[in-house]
Amino acid sequence: MSALDGPLMVVLDLSIGGMKTGFMTDASIPAATDAGAAATVNKDLEIFHYYVPTGTFTRITKTNHKDYDDVFPTVSHKGDVVAWISDWDYVDEVDVMTANQVFAVKLKMGCKHRDALNFLVSPDVEACCEWPTSIMTKSKGKQIKMTFNGDATAMKNRVPFEKDSFAATFGAQVRDDIACSMDIPASTISVVSTSMESSIMVTLRLHELDESSAVTIKTPSETSKMIVAQHAQTAFTADGSRLWKGYLTKTLDKEVAPVVTDFDDTPRVATTVLAPKAPADTKHFVTMVVTLPLTKADFDTARQDQYKAAVASAAGTDLANVEIVSISEARRRAGSIQVDTKIRATDAAGATKMMDTLGTGDALLSKINKELEAQDLPKSTGVTAPKKVFSSAFRRATGVWSTLLVAGAAAWIADLAV
Q1: Average confidence (pLDDT) over 379-405
Q2: What residue segments make up the domains of the chain, in order of their start?
Q3: Is there a smaller number of Cβ atoms within 10 Å at the N or the C end of the chain?
Q4: Side by side, which strands form the sheet with 70-75?
């Protein structure tokens, strides 16, 4: 075989998904040469492997002789095996120009992160890390907005189908580029938006890991700082940063630095303000009787403390305000007890608020049972309607005002009759 006047580069095969390619060329590939291979020779076709996600060239053959060509590379399904036809016998180290032979090599492709599923200490081709699918994240971390070069309208016009999903596809690829270049799971990154207006902008969120996740990766803060730092380095060259070697991140706008902000969408839980501790001799309290499917013997001190904690939580008050007045056997329910309960308040308004918090009927029973279950106690089979008790002074004042109002109304009616 003889090569054409060079340089020549022909891509002959792709892996499934198109992420790994095999090609032959007599052109010099600086990225592969810098890795230790000798420079190519004009008219000597050699085989190279190219890994798209990281822009990595790997030289496969090295005859460095214009008469010994290596041609027609074929890449395996996974892209880690390359086969080709050669003028040179790589086993016996003799030329086979009159009877070309087929050779193959298997590349070790892996990630150097020890928690990755495809971890390798010294891979032939450093690939994107593969991660467990069970990684959980929080709704907080860092948000980063990046600007890209290119004419969005022209790009979309070149897409023969699914033009409406082009922006989403673009954003998803940027997410994958960031995940690969930063050695973090793509599942920890979410795409917030992809703008295709006057300029192309992609906004991503880098999520904090949940404590249950069994991997150790860079934090969102560390990752965002690394992205900004690598963006400021040399752009897409052999010695450039990994960020600039991504499939789409190599098209980042060099003049526009990524913008990083915080985000926190953690659901906020309303804080219940408990009623303050009331004096032991207060004249303001609420009473109710709760029926429990327990015997007196079962309802020991520990369970009584659990019961009081449940009632306090249901009423929205301090635990010290709950008092068990008496415990009696239920007359109509064998193996059940009735717990006469008092809940103290500091004033009449506090007692009224507890009544409102507890509720009535099914809502009251449901609330009590929810708190009983939280304390590992059996559900109540019945709760009497809460009763509000005020001080004698309050009742007397109420009575006086009622008498005055009645008297006033009677006098008004008498005047009308005259």
Answers
A1: 64
A2: 9-110, 131-264, 284-392
A3: C
A4: 70-75, 81-86, 101-106
* Environment class of 256 (CB within 10 Å of its CB; exposed 0-12, middle 13-18, buried 19+): middle
Side-chain half-sphere CA neighbours of 210 within 13 A? 10
Q: How far apart are CA 63 and CA 40, in angstroms?
A: 9
pLDDT in tens, 346-369: 999 999 999 999 999 999 999 999
**Would you say residue 412 has pLDDT above 60?**
no
Give the count of beta carbons closer than 10 Å to the beta carbon of residue 91: 7
> What digits encode the pLDDT tens for the residues 293-313?
999 988 999 899 999 999 999
189-235 per-position pLDDT tens digit: 999 999 988 789 999 999 999 888 878 899 999 999 999 999 998 66
Are the C-beta atoms of 62 and 46 separated by less than 8 Å?
yes
> What phi-psi label fits residue 352: left (phi over 0), alpha (psi between -120 and 50 degrees) or beta?
alpha
| Number of neighbours of residue 63 by Cβ within 10 angstroms | 20
Q: What is the pLDDT of residue 39?
A: 67
What span, in angstroms and rounded, lies between the C-alpha atoms of 218 and 209? 10
Residue 99 in 3-state DSSP?
coil
pLDDT of residue 16: 58
CA distance 24 to 9: 6
Confirm if 137 and 212 have CB atoms less than 8 A apart: no
* CB burial readout 351-372, b (16+ within 10 A) else e: bebbbebbbeeeebbebbbebb
CA distances from 155 to 177, 367, 382 (A): 19, 59, 69
Contact predicate 124/107, CB 8 Å:
yes
Element (H, E) at 32: helix 30-33
Question: Which has the closest alpha carbon to 345: 249, 250, 277, 255?
Answer: 277
Instruction: Evaluate if residue 323 carries a pLDDT over 70.
Output: yes
Which tokens sit at 84?
A: 């080709």
Q: In whole angstroms, what is the distance from residue 333 CA to residue 291 CA?
A: 9
Q: Which two tokens stand for residue 108?
A: 């070790």
Q: pLDDT tens digits, residue range 48-77?
A: 888 888 888 888 888 888 889 888 888 888
Decide: 87 and 1 in contact? Cβ < 8 Å: yes
Q: What is the pTM of this model?
A: 0.59
Domain 284-392: give its CATH architecture. 2-Layer Sandwich (3.30)
